[in-house]
Amino acid sequence: LAKVVESKKKAVEQQDFEEAGRLFRRAGATRSAIAAAAREAGARMEAGRLQAAETLLRAADLAAEQATAGPERMMVRAVLVECLDWQNRTDDAQRIIEQDRAFGEGTRPDPIEVETPACRAGASSDGPVPPCETESAHRLRWHCAAGAVALRRRSIEEAASQLAAALAAVADGSPLAACAAEILAIRFHALTGDLEALRLHLARGGG
Question: What is the pLDDT of residue 170?
Fold first, then answer.
């Protein structure tokens, strides 16, 4: 009976995921809408609604793939890795990381355009909302998410590689994204027992 219930539950979740994907595509799935979906999923994660967040992220991932929105898809996949990691589904998260190795290598993608409330307040009422922030936080977040999974797997070499890439991307990211890289660094050095480096990153975080 438990297997039947679980099977039906997965079928319903799959239907929800496919329907959400259809709605995204029907609406045109603009880059800003996909990025907004990733932020909404993050809010659901913070509220403990991890399955709901995963459903939204997989729908947004499908929409980003269909719309060839590469930078936004990187952002969505990074949050999806985080969501799976929070559910202790390390193997599932690692599979996505392996699929997405190209996100951390090769040509730098175009930056994401982010619309903020301040931006909307300054926009004319009869015209489109102009993007007023341009960030590379999607790449930084991907490395932080992949690094966190590597730490959970106790893959020190992989974690070190992802941490180095995240710290290298800090200059191009937002202060909030830079905090994520510092947190990853603190976790890494705590795990490896490098107290001097740990004190350095703790001092940065406190500043």
Answer: 79
Torsion, Cα of 183, 189, 191, 194 (10° steps):
-160
> Could you give the C-alpha distances from 117 to 41, 78, 123, in angstroms and in order?
19, 24, 10
Burial of 173 (0-12, 13-18, 19+ CB in 10 A): buried
Q: CA 4 from chain center: how many Å? A: 33
* Residues 119, 130 contacting (CB under 8 angstroms): yes
Q: Specify the amino acid at residue 176.
A: L
Place of tokens 């290598």: 105
* pLDDT category of residue 31 using cuts at 50, 70 and 90: confident
Q: What is the per-residue pLDDT for 202?
A: 67
The CB density around residue 10, as the number of other CB atoms within 10 Å, is 10
